[in-house]
Design goal:
Structural class: alpha/beta
Shape: globular
Largest sheet: 6 strands, parallel
Number of strands: 6
Strand order of the largest sheet: 2-1-3-4-5-6
Strand content: 5-15%
Distance between the termini: 25 Å
Order of helices and strands: EHEHEHEHEHEHHHHHH
Radius of gyration: 17 Å
Number of helices: 11
């Protein structure tokens, strides 16, 4: 599936941007293990990444946070503003929690830890290509903890505020938010909740509007802050 919900033709096209050649090579090598993913371009800084996205129109751009000239977050903001058909996955380290928050604000949909498992990179690229958010529970918990330790307010206050926002959702919207928090795509949510995908898309739009957030990853953070439990696993047949 593509980010607009239509069936994608051919492999998922990916741009990889990192100023360290060895990191780029490693990311490319991991992605090459999936025959359904194709790296179509590489960039060594954020400015070049934006230019490569314009030239190649990939489904997903994998951007390092720290890059020369234009950093990954500013590049993500430009990509999401001018080329919304390309989803953005950020590569971060655990020491860059504030950067994760900034990236959320500009519309990045995926957050991967450089020290994570290769399978997470594949899953993250696939999820964002499908229009979903990829925010692992580990990353979400780290973001929430960081918010509590900064001037953004005490954790208890943030939890109360998140719960108040969630209280305005309908039961069905709350179900959808739980699945967003788990990083599922519209198609996956539709199958889990036995709905048509168009109905799920409408629910997702309503959830984002009611929560006052701009993207699915930010909604996932609200879900974690509010303590919404993850959805049960699909029934085994």
């Amino acid at each position: 599936m593509s980010r607009d919900g239509t069936a994608a033709a051919g492999p998922v096209r990916v741009l990889v941007a990192d100023d360290e050649p060895m990191i780029r090579a490693g990311v490319r090598a991991v992605l090459a293990t999936d025959p359904g993913i194709e790296v179509v371009a590489e960039a060594a800084d954020g400015h070049e990444a934006v230019e490569m996205v314009r030239a190649h129109r990939p489904h997903v751009a994998v951007l390092d946070v720290r890059m020369p000239r234009t950093d990954g977050i500013d590049a993500a903001a430009e990509i999401r503003r001018t080329l919304p058909g390309t989803g953005v996955v950020m590569l971060t380290t655990f020491g860059e929690d504030d950067h994760i928050l900034r990236a959320l604000g500009v519309g990045a949909a995926g957050f991967l830890i450089k020290s994570g498992e290769p399978e997470e990179l594949l899953a993250g690229v696939r999820a964002v290509a499908d229009g979903a958010a990829y925010l692992s529970p580990k990353v979400a918990a780290r973001v929430v903890a960081h918010l509590a330790s900064t001037g953004a307010g005490a954790l208890a206050e943030r939890r109360d505020a998140a719960r108040e926002r969630v209280a305005g959702l309908t039961p069905r919207e709350r179900d959808v938010l739980a699945h967003l928090g788990a990083g599922l795509s519209n198609g996956q949510i539709a199958r889990r909740l036995h709905l048509v995908e168009g109905t799920v898309k409408a629910h997702v739009s309503s959830v984002l509007a009611r929560l006052g957030v701009d993207n699915r990853a930010a909604a996932a953070v609200v879900a974690h802050e509010a303590g919404i439990p993850p959805p049960p696993p699909p029934e085994q047949r």
